Amino acid sequence: MIRILVADDHAVVRQGVKQILADVRDMLVKDEAQNGTETIDKVMKYEYDVVLLDISMPGRSGLEILEEIKAQKPKLAVLILSMHPEEQYAVRALRAGASGYLTKASAPQELIGAIRKVAGGGKYVTTSLAEKLAGELEVDPQKLPHERLSNREYQVMLMLAQGRSVSDIAEELCLSVKTISTYRTRVLDKMGMRKNAELTLYAVHNNLIQ
Fold this sequence. Notes:
The chain is α/β, with parallel strands linked by helices. The chain has 2 domains: 2-137, Response regulator (Rossmann fold); 141-205, Arc Repressor Mutant, subunit A (Orthogonal Bundle). Helix content is 52%, strand content 13%. The protein has helices spanning 11-21, 36-45, 62-72, 86-95, 108-119, 127-138, 151-161, 166-173, 177-191, 196-205, and strands at 2-7, 27-33, 50-53, 77-82, 100-103. It has a 5-stranded parallel beta sheet with strand order 2-1-3-4-5, with helices on both faces. Helix 7 crosses helix 9 (177-191).
């Protein structure tokens, strides 16, 4: 029996996953978590075979939670289930130790297959993501300014590039406006830019946002 922890801040997503897996004989949604702290607490207290983890969690990002899980339990399979397209976060997630990356638009059978694969010690990547990973090996990441950003800076950069305000970002990430303003300054500095509009143009040009 594959024991699963579903970590997502949206109750409707957690319920949807439970319904998809309810009739799958070899799977059991053992627990749920709605934020990073709860996810880490349960991972440390209980035994799971797979953690289904969302990238966009309030407070600490899913990538930060992923890194802590892998630091504490390196053999635990973590499958990212995100609303964000592969182009935005998949490569970073796999580098941080994720066993696979799926978008929430994926078909139920694809989710079931992905869980089985990572529970067995494998990696789950779509064909398009496999091609992107192969391409990453051929490109020096130091040439790409966004590759120099930390995971949190990268998250803030994408939100700024999408036209989100500092106060809006602060509210969604459960951080202070001052903290987000500091991240914005760091991002612009590392990217060699002065305005949010430049971030938008860069993100569109590099297929980070549509």
